User: Which sequence fits this backbone?
């Protein structure tokens, strides 16, 4: 009985868990990435100047160089895209098993949300 109580308490406090957190609804990864590249530590926060900033890590889980493209699409309070030069595809080559930080800032303080997209470079 004592062991069962411990397992229940541990599960309630998150000590026993085999599940991964649900993906962020703002992140869209192209299916061809599969598990070769994953996006971790995804954050989007408003800075002191009132601009949203995106930060994430791209992780290459393969033993080969991986060509990746990513972009952020910034949205206003109505959910409409804010047109900007910073909303273009960024290209990088991830080295084998490399973790690379990605960062970009909204083009206007009116941005209240965003969408993140990643795909294998064609």
Assistant:
């Amino acid at each position: 009985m004592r062991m069962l109580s411990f397992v229940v308490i541990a599960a309630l406090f998150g000590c026993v868990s085999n599940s991964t957190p649900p993906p962020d609804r703002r992140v869209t990864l192209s299916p061809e990435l599969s598990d070769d590249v994953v996006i971790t530590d995804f954050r989007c926060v408003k800075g002191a100047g009132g601009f949203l900033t995106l930060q994430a890590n791209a992780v290459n889980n393969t033993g080969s160089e991986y060509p990746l493209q990513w972009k952020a699409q910034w949205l206003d309070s109505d959910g409409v895209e804010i047109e900007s030069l910073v909303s273009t595809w960024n290209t990088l080559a991830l080295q084998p098993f490399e973790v690379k930080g990605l960062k970009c800032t909204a083009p206007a303080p009116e941005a209240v949300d965003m969408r993140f997209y990643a795909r294998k470079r064609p």
